[in-house]
Amino acid sequence: MKNKIAQTALAGLFAVGLIVNLASPANAMVCSLTHTAGTYGVSDSGTVINIGPRAAVALLTLDAAGNISGSVTASLNGTVSSSTLSGNYSVNSDCTGTTSFGEYDSSGNLLLTATASLVWDSGMQEFRFLFTSVTLPDGTPLATAVNGSAKRR
Question: HEC string of the chain?
């Protein structure tokens, strides 16, 4: 009798654990372009080596086709500027991804191209990023230590 009760209790605990696991946000959907598409408020900070500190805010839109665009206001070593950003992004089923984009001044002149590594969390409502390369239009690479985060609006 005790063995039967223990088996029933164990089966019940297993079923509850399985239901909770399947219902958790982490398993609710797999990261994909469709699930990460949206508009995000973004901030970043860090250093452009041999130039100075950088801080920025942006409003970026990621679409389900893998495009990224938006407006950026940045301070680089105390000089504030506004630009637009345009490029593409990818996302893997494990919620990691990459982006490659250009930033342009108000006249449409290319200011820089950059790449960043991405990681989504919080049920795909937020992502974190780290710049992995920044290059000026003349091909000059800039060394950076800049990271940031973005939250879906």
Answer: CHHHHHHHHHHHHHHHHHHHHHHCHHHHCCCCHHHHCEEEEEEEEEEECCCEEEEEEEEEEECCCCEEEEEEEEEECCEEEEEEEEEEEEECCCCEEEEEEEEECCCCCEEEEEEEEEEEECCCCEEEEEEEEEECCCCCEECEEEEEEEEEC
Fold of 33-152: Lipocalin (2.40.128)
Higher local confidence (pLDDT), 93 or 2 = 93
Domain boundaries, the chain: 1-29, 33-152
Residue showing tokens 């060394």: 143
More confident residue, 49 or 2: 49
Q: How far is it, in rounded angstroms, from Cα 121 to Cα 5?
A: 40
Mean pLDDT over 76-95 rounds to 97
> Using one digit for the tens of pLDDT, what is the confidence trace for 15-73?
444 444 444 454 556 899 999 999 999 999 999 999 999 999 999 999 999 999 999 99
